[in-house]
Amino acid sequence: MKSMLWEFTDNKGSFESACADKIKSFYFPLANDKIMSSVSPDLHGDIKAGQNSFLLTPASRIDLIDSRSSRNFWVCANNKIWSATGVSKDIKQIQGDKFKLEAGLLWHKVIRENKNIGLKAEILSFVPATEDPVEIMQVKLTNISRKPIEITPTAAMPIYARGANNIRDHRHVTSLLNRISLDKFGVVVKPTLIFDESGHRPNKTNYFVVGFDDKFKAPRYIYPTQEMFCGDSGDLEAPESVLKNLLPGKQSIDGKEAMGAMRFNSVTVKPGASRTYIILLGITQTNRQIKKIIGKYNSLKKINAALEINKNFWSAKTKQTDLNSGDINFDNWSRWVSIQPLLRKIFGCSFLPDFDYGKGGRGWRDLWQDCLGLILSNPEGMRELFINNFSGVRIDGSNATIIGKKPGEFIADRNDIARVWMDHGVWPLLTLDLYLNETGDTDILFKDTYYFCDRHIYRSKALGPGCKDNKLKSSKGAFYKGSVLEHLLVQNLVQFFNVGAHNHVRLEGADWNDGLDMADECGESVAFSCMYAHNLKRLAEIIEYSGRERVKICAELKILLSKINYNDISAKRRILNNYFNKTKCAVSGMQIEMDSARLAADLSKKAEWMMCYIRKREWLKEGFFNGYYDNNKKAAEGRVGGIMRMTLTGQVFPIMSGVADSKQIKNILRSVRKHLLDKKLSGYHLNTDFKSEQHNLGRAFSFVYGDKENGAFFNHMVVMYAFALYKRGYIKEGWQILNSIYNMAINNKESKIYPCLPEYFNLEGRGMYSYLTGSASWFTLILITEAFGLKGVYGNLVVEPKLCRGQFKSRNVSISRIFAGRRLKVNFILTKSDSGKITKATLNSSDIVLETSNRLIIMRSAILRLSKDKVHKLDIVLG
Prior knowledge:
Layout: E1 7-8, E2 15-17, E3 28-31, E4 36-39, E5 47-50, E6 53-54, H1 63-66, E7 72-77, E8 80-83, H2 91-95, E9 97-104, E10 107-114, E11 119-126, E12 134-143, E13 149-159, H3 171-175, E14 180-183, E15 186-189, E16 193-194, E17 201-202, E18 206-213, E19 221-225, H4 226-230, H5 240-243, E20 258-263, E21 267-269, E22 274-284, H6 287-296, H7 300-317, E23 323-324, H8 328-347, H9 364-377, H10 383-389, E24 402-403, E25 410-411, H11 427-439, E26 448-450, E27 456-457, E28 462-463, E29 481-483, H12 484-497, E30 524-525, H13 526-546, E31 550-554, H14 569-583, E32 591-595, H15 596-617, E33 628-629, E34 638-640, E35 643-645, H16 649-657, H17 662-675, E36 713-714, H18 715-727, H19 731-746, H20 748-751, E37 760-761, E38 767-768, H21 775-787, E39 790-793, E40 796-799, E41 812-819, E42 822-830, E43 838-843, E44 846-847, E45 856-858, H22 860-864, E46 871-878
Parallel strand pairs: 42-46
Antiparallel strand pairs: 1-2, 2-9, 3-4, 4-5, 5-6, 7-8, 7-13, 9-10, 10-11, 11-12, 12-22, 13-20, 13-21, 14-15, 15-18, 16-17, 18-22, 19-20, 23-41, 24-25, 26-29, 27-28, 30-33, 31-32, 34-35, 36-37, 37-38, 39-40, 40-45, 41-42, 43-44, 43-46
Helix pairs in contact: 8-9, 8-21, 9-11, 9-21, 12-13, 13-15, 13-16, 16-18, 18-19, 18-21
């Protein structure tokens, strides 16, 4: 990797770069549960606690390049001016800089040397793993010349101190709200209001930038406004206070654009000696918190201790995929992928510079898919979270789309748009199924929780009176609760009847592909009809396994268990409308007991009908499935007007669900390689180029081909393609697909991203939307449960490896896995054979009796007898 933009330096995910400063759009995440930061190689980026509280100016990817606002640190050294971050209009001065980046799991260090100035600057940035709402910036200046140097340092951070919407909306007016106070160590800003024309609110948030030197000495001068710091003819890249050595005046400071600029005392630094400065940037609710934070981080010793805690915290989070594959680059990269679900839990989809998803927060789909990775490390800790999550489901099978900060807190939509994604009902069962298998906890199915309720009824096709506290009530006025199983039945049974003209589930606002959003009236998603069929079948199996002879369900739900001719579209719609009419404002509150076997049989019958129907009706002569119908009721895929139209999504879910038979899968593999595999980059396109806009299907086709949802190498769907193939026994093909993603990501000279799995790669191979993608959870899930085959089955550990010789660089590979609260290190010894059969197995050096060569079952009771305090060694010989 010597020719790359960066390379790994240890086995802990740390990396370095000598040229990251050449890519201005590079960004790196720093965060804890209270504060979120992004930082670029020249320290652009922002800091925020949420959509309405940004300390530094909100920064998009293009702002990292265009904006003058950054965390700057100026040094006057022997009458020469130098920006230690490389952000200066004096290009000649910084052209002499020698640059180096060092970074690891949520810590970031930029090193710049300038021989003309005679200084080296090491700027460390991190957010403590504790919940302190502060970013720490430590600047160490070292004299690399042969003579003493007199330095006068000045830290300079423009303080934005308001909500993201005010970046253009009322920018000047909101500055008039600023009340700026001088602290001994810096600047505190507390605006009087949160400015919102729909309803102004008193502001309680403090924004602060404070600093001190390594002897805990405060700055000598403080510049609390940009006007004072920059001067009339200067700006943030050429401030008059620095260039002309101007001292702060005594003019009024309230109602101005705030500045966290601090000039420290001039000191003489001997050759080889260093001086260090600490800058704390944070967002709090009280002044007392600020003083507490200053006291907690007021020395180098305390900063170093906090850094070690931070490194250990994030390193521990990677232990669930502690790989030893013989390829240290793959192992290190996997560490970064494994923490991405945690990063998305913190950042949502919108709080890093690629924030095209709008106003922040995770969506419904994100909530459930991020849980996949979290379940593998701590399934028992997810129980209450799951129960709370189901309270986001509406009685009509739709759901709130935005997740609040607290468990069980939901918002109808971030933009108050009545929109329903038809795939949302699929994900809760897929995620809960993993939990059930990891824990064996089928009792969770019978725990009661609320339903979400607001003005949107009939799957947002109409408005009702609304519900108090966003909870569904019974006709008697009490809040209604139903079991988790009942919620799953609602989500999946409603969709069985919610069909379009071709008897497939209606597309509504969109499915997984958000860009298919212009076929609300007549569009259908064959792809996710497959998954609803899968879910109905799986629900039947789970009900049978639970051992309950009878189950209680909402009385109105029996409407959706009516016996009809499933080919009769009109009859399905009548039943659905009857159900909607009975539940539109409230439910009776009555529950009925139903025979479990009869319920399971009904679900199985529906599932089988759907699978057979799709298998026969939607298979195209071109050798793949049609996945969609547009708003003109026309099939979206196949050869149309001489153009081959094919989507990867339309093939993934027939395979994953079991709809596609083995012959069809082989044809799909050939078709995908022919039409969707990029010969140059060896990646898989989300769709072929339809060559024209599709206003009857979705906005996606108005994007340039090869970006976003129009034909990009969209990792989320590509990873699920690999998962589907692994599930159906196509191991080599599945691994080849995963490996293609890894190779694109690790080829950072083309991908131009730090180590992570981005949302997608564009046609140039550039990674887009780093860190915040659901594909990370799926990649980790496949690696652990499919490739290495370490999975739970109703609480028992099953080892069913799908490894083959040559997959990794070593024949001895290992992976760590937490199961039933016990840490296991599983070693696989691959012999010359490619059979993958288990020939021998030992647990802590004791032989395990093999009942079959295909898989090994270790009962949960045996795992629970193992000590919690040690790592247990499971050796598997394959041959």
